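Record format v2
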Amino acid sequence: MTEANVSKSQISPVHSVRGAQTNGWARVQQVLRRLLLSEYFVLYLSIIYFLMLWPFIPRIASPQNLGNIFSNMWPLLAVAIGQTFVLIVAGIDLSQSSIMALVSVIGAAIMTTQLDPVLFEKSPLWGVLYTATGSPLAGTLLALPVALLAMMGVGALIGLWNGTAVARLKTPPFMVTLVGMMFFSAAAIYLTKSENIIHLPDAYIALGQGQISFVPYSFFIVGALAIAAQWLLSRTVLGRWFYAVGTNMRTAIVSGVPVTRVIITAYVLSGFFAAVGSIFYSARLAAGRPTLGSSLLLDVVGATVIGGTSLMGGKGKILWTVFGVLFFVLLDNSLNLLNLSFFWVQIVKGSVILLAAGLDVARTRLTARS
Amino acid sequence: MNDSILTFENIDKSFFGVPVLKDISFQLPRGQVLGLVGENGAGKSTLMNLVGGVVPLDSGRMLLDGNPYTPRGPSDASAAGVAFIHQELNLFTNLSIAENIFINGFPRFHWLPMLNRTAMRTQTRQFLDAVDLPVSPDTLVEKLSPGERQLAEIAKALSFNARLIIFDEPTTSLTARETERLFALIERLRSDGASIVYISHILTDVMRLADEIVVLRDGEVVGHGRKEEFSVGRMISLMVGRDIQQLYPPRTAQATDRPALEVRGVSQPGIVDKIDFTLYKGETLGVFGLMGSGRTELARILFGMDGCEEGEIAIDGVVQSKLSPRHCIDTGLAFVTENRREEGLLMDISISNNIGLVALPHYASSTFTPLHEQRLNGQIDEVVGSLKIKVSDVRRQAVKTLSGGNQQKAVIGKWLLRNPQVLIVDEPTRGVDVGAKYEIYTILAQLAAEGTGVLFISSELDELMGVCDRILVMGNGEVQAIFSRSEFDKERILRAAFREQVTS
């Protein structure tokens, strides 16, 4: 998906510049304008950023690093797809990171084949789900599918709770999901007494680390889910309803849109996709980690919003989110390569996000004017 | 020429290369009321925005008291004594009246950076007295009714000694009584020497208030003279550029005796009380009432948006077991709400998606399966064509780019994909120009002729008398009377509507 867009975008601007040597500066302005207003703006931005850094950090273009960037995108994208749905219905889901943590721990607890009694004796699940030889299902063929289903199911259930609180109890999404973030991440830590659960089956770890030549498994799964999500948004009744509810809830109610159900569905999808992200992240770590995702929340919301999905609701596309995620992963990767200390990474990241936000404001103004 | 306060000389203005005002020249008489009329998009608001300093002009010039007048912003205009009372009022609802009045320059304690609240209050009280608004200066604007807000805004104009006050559609959200109060105030301002520009679609009001009248069409002055030279009919033909024989289309629909909507004893404490009526297929039943009479609230109950404690509603003979908008839509009810921006349309979304919204579930086998877009789009195009919605790109153009009349047609359009049994319309012609009004009446008459029962809610009695078979009068949440066409009489209907106020 991404490759196709890269080649297209590299050709088209060059093309239009060449086609118009008649009136130099005005023409350049027009091209810049079109670039800024284009749906692929964030993709262009990523490419420009990449090309600008290349002379300074040649390593960024090494096959190994490109592979890294490519494989880092998909787990983050999974989570961001969920966030996109919620933002489109004018909500926000801050609990995604805690869903990832809780789900990571639950899945690992079902699959693990060995637990250290010294570390886990004090856990509330010791003797129930946890034993020295792992869970009751450990080592059986059922362990992996049951764990995966449980992870996705718990994610969706938490989403159901969030959505119900928002749509039926009319609690502000910010409050519901902020409280959810505290509650579920605390639950994840409580269940494991803050220990990582290791000794997971190889088949599961392969899900996160395995590749077909250089393409990670996550690409195929998340890619397929992304296409399905975009299809849902643009081709089905439910998709239209998402946008209608996010644009103007009162109009949606008068027009017979089942607003409560639509909002709940968005949060369920958000929880589900957070769980999918967690499956890949945990597999890559080869561990169930109770603090998984705690630093990811900014990346998820940031990538989605920079992609062009509006915090005000009613506007957003999965493709935009793909570009936003690419930009964030690239940014992270480049800052790592620069070997900066943690606080410098955060400062630079913050500045770049601010810059991107500024460009977005400029875009909105331009659209309003034309 | 010293009897004019403001002179326009050869004013031109275009937006994005589209001329909006073409070579406008006329004079505003001093100390008098000038009525400014024209269809939506004729350039009235743009012309007044030039005066109010909201937008700059392209060429030509304005003279205020004989001196060149070039306001660079609204604050320049206020400094020159020009006040602009907008359609959407410009008050901060979260602040008090006094704070709103002094927002551009709070009185201070000498040189200290502190507000002199006492001075603010006493001065505000004077201005409020002048506009006859007996509330405390500390009242928050959000607590005021639309009419009172209007008065507060006029008080603000008085605070900077406005000599020229522009009213842009001031009565759209006022009750009859508030309108009367406003008119009395305008008379008073005039006798105190203020010059006034009054913009309105309600031509009888213009006839009543104005000393002089200017008619704009397509950015040009097509008529200007003393009020005596005009009649409502002449204004309309000047505005639309052709003769309109009638304001209302011929009534072709024949009411049947088969009930479309039966309402039996619907009550909701404090809102409506024992409402009983029947709307027949092919009938247009008007609902008249003053603001607060319960007319809009009744419509919202019928459509399942608000609950009712008692009563029975039957659509096409079927008693409704539960009331929710979706359920009502499925049984053939449609509702064009009174405020199209807040409840009728998704302003940022395309015309096509707006019109398709209600009928969506009928163009897919389930919520999660693909839409039959071709079929849906075909239907949408048919509706857009039959309603004559003026649009260049149905699929991509946002509905907010349409004019008021075309937006209203789009709201009606989104219900037509489902052939409703009962269509409830609430103030369908508010803020819509004469030409579009006629088209909307025609559309509704057409639907009635096809057998739809139309419940037409309006606060304009003339229009109800023009298009309805019967008129139901509401007051104090109750049905006061129902008049059939042969009994239509403006005074009797108004009396019925005012009954509660008259007796108490």
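Chain B has a mean pLDDT of 87.
Residues 176-191 of chain B form the longest helix (16 residues).
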